[in-house]
Amino acid sequence: MHHLRFSKYDIKYRNELGHYLRDDWTSFWDIGKICEGRLLTIEEYERVEKNYLDALRDIIQTIGISHITIAHIDWHEFTQDDFAFTIKEGGSVSIDQALYLAKLTLRNQFWISLESSELKINFSSEMYAYVEFTIEPDIIKNIISKHHLFWESREFWYFDD
Q1: What is the phi/psi pair of residue 96, to 5°?
Q2: For residue range 59-110, what is the model confidence (pLDDT) as tens digits?
Q3: What pTM, to 2 d.p., does this model score?
Q4: Burial of 88 (0-12, 13-18, 19+ CB in 10 A)
Q5: What CA–CA distance (Å, rounded) separates 15 from 130?
Q6: If 0-12 CB within 10 Å is exposed, 13-18 middle and 19+ buried, where does residue 40 land?
Q7: Residue 22, class by beta-carbon neighbours within 10 Å (0-12 exposed, 13-18 middle, 19+ buried)?
Q8: What are phi and psi of 56, to 5 degrees?
């Protein structure tokens, strides 16, 4: 399996320890704040969020998955009653459902970890997404780059056994 972390953070603004050096926005909750001298609007947030969701959709479609399993859930402010489909650890969801849950996770309103035998998807705070996959890494790197996001290929604790 191969591992990548991807985000909206341009890697050219990282120091030698990997720390991001710009005062950039890091979450949905920064809408209305000034970051890097610019007001973060809902439109700008949604544009970037769409890049993540489109990249995930392309990765999933490229790998050829039609359903994915929910590995872990943290409900935050939601309950099962808030959803029109069943959500449970070990349960399967469609790709559209998975992307909806990913959107809520990017907004820090829900947290989910998804997996199949060919792909695992995790998230952390500050708009980081993690993928573990079985296909050629350059294919996934190109998808991430196509959606104006940046990838890193270090080992990450999300994939420890």
Answers
A1: -60, -40
A2: 999 999 999 999 999 988 788 888 999 999 999 999 999 999 999 999 999 8
A3: 0.92
A4: exposed
A5: 21
A6: buried
A7: exposed
A8: -60, -45
